[in-house]
Amino acid sequence: MVKRGRIVAFFLLVVMFAGLMGVTTQDVANRIKLGLDLQGGFEVLYEVIPAEEGQEITKDLLNSTVSALRERVDVLGVSEPNIQIEGDDRIRVQLAGVEDQNQARELLSTQAELTFRDVNDKVRLKGADLKEGGAKVIFDKANRPLVSLKLKDGDKFGNITTDISQMPEPTNRLVIWLDYEKGDSFEEEFKKEGDAPGDPKYISAPAVRYPIHSDTATIDGMETIDEAQNLVDLLNAGSLPVKLKEIYSTSVGAKFGQQSLETTMLAGVIGIALIFLYMIFFYRIPGIVAVVTLSFYIYLILVVFDWMNGVLTLPGIAALILGVGMAVDANIITYERIQEELKSGKSVMSAFKAGNKHSFSTIFDANITTILAATVLFIFGTSSVQGFALVLIISILASFLTAVYGTRIFLGLLVNSRVLNKKPRLFGVKESQIKDLDDFERLDISNSRFKKVNFVEHRKKFFTLSSILIGLGIISLLVFNLNLGIDFVAGSRVQITAEHALDEDKIKDQLKSLGHETDEVVISGDAENIAVARYVDVLSQGEISKIKSFFKKEYGSEPGVSTVSPTVGVELAKNAMYAIAIASIGIIIYVAIRFEWMMGLAAVIALLHDAFFITAVFSLLQMEVDLTFIAAVLTIVGYSINDTIVTFDRIRENMKYAKVKTFSDLANVVNISLVQTFARSVNTVLTVIFAAAALMIFGSEAISNFSFALLVGLVAGTYSSLFIASQLWLVWKGKQLKNKSVKSSNTSEA
User: Fold this and answer.
1) Structure pTM?
2) CA 694, 698, 700 angle in degrees (round to 5)?
3) Model confidence at 80, in pLDDT bands (50, 70, 90)?
């Protein structure tokens, strides 16, 4: 008898969650902070350098510098800036949504140490002689902007001006410097007021003809009100106690960030819609339940991200979309198990219980290894990559809750209502596939669609194929090497974006006119509206400012400019290698503990095979290798091990039902396990491919290489899980079995 109450409860829960999501999703989404790659902005990593000889960079000094930087950021009106101390002598600043990036960078890095000197460069007054917050803009009789300063001691200023006023013309000048540097000279700079090229480095050098007994001083020489206000802001924010040197920077124009957000969201909608349709088509009622739990999963991630006050980056959205593809794996593992139990002749209710029970450990082990890879990525990655890793970790945890427990609740209500009794087709199982319960054997695959596929028999061919591909990959790396981006080799990258198609020669000419000639300008984008130029030199702040201003005026969109110093480039490459090595060792240890060491070793060889395959393809196609490439490789490392563990878990389970005495027995168990998990492997990889392909085709140009690396890795990962990892374990286990047999035989003979 159908229990209608459970059906009503099912629909009430669905309506309740749909209502909750419908009412609150918009607010939650609006509260989530967007990273600088989605709303424009820049990120700079500064090396802190002593401002004077003998100064020691201490923790207190770094904290004081951060406080001074925050004061300056407040002037810019940027809400929630991210300023962090890294290591012993570095500070990272991230400003998203800043309108004038040139002004912001100048404001941040200027030491803002104001000094009043005579013509012999002797210091007469310093910033410490000014009253805090006493600077303001005033105007002279001709309505020209001046900066008025309040002094702590008017008498001191009177004595100084008395002294200078008694000096003969034209040496009776009070020279006002901002950030005077060792080697600067008024005598040299003064020549620029004549025929020498350039502008003087000092702000102004007024002649002092009379003593000034006042606690107020004024600075002239500013051409615009903005220039005067900028100086006032700097002085009121206070000087920096140290000097800052840019060693890494990246910037994204606001328009490009907005476009990236829109295109990636569209890719997400398409990718997720394809996954939903596939699940409903393949699994019927459980597929509909998967759509419900996956929808709640997406909502849950947004809520958690909001609670954590996290910053959503472009790779983070990619991780969210990709996470749906990976989260559905838990549903697929459970549903495949339920289908198997139904085919064994069990009732719907019994199949549901057994399917949930047998799938739990598989899902748990697979998720732990992916979290391990994502954690390593978070520790060794930088900002946007960390954003990707954080979303991936949250995604895995959320998927565990929704896919495992959510499915049990929702599908459990329908199953326990008995409305699905004797209706295996609603689970994607035909009546002809169902055996009598008494005739069923756990290792029987006669009902499987893939029963004729022998994965084990052709293992030597697969090993040979992989060896040939690896050989070709090595040749490609030796001949073509990798097209390393500036993240790993240092230098600068300029990305120009326009509303229309760009002409390569014109861009080269424009860059040449700015003094940055290059032979390599790559045009990309669907409308060929993105131009990228690379330089081996690290552009200075002034050069970046000039490039940004020029192309913003030319094309209406501020270009993105990234710079990486040689020191940081080496560190990023080293961290990438550490990340892959640590993730691999961690996975070996975990799999060795949960399964056995040979499975752990086989799994790691398979995932290194996948990582190398992606690297070789990038070498062959000469695609740029940047930080997101490393993120893609580590994602595949996590995903590939996930796939392999599902197979190993089934082998471990089937070994309990088999009497393994010979290599042939062992090979049979491995082949049966691969056949039993094959549908799950295909369905899982297809759903993730839907997400990755949508990101590559419809997503932002900024993550196209990342998406392509994922696609290549998914194919390689599925291949290695099915044809390499299990077969390697079979060969090693077979030798172990043979050695045991020999020892046993020798013992018997003795």
Assistant:
1) 0.74
2) 115
3) low
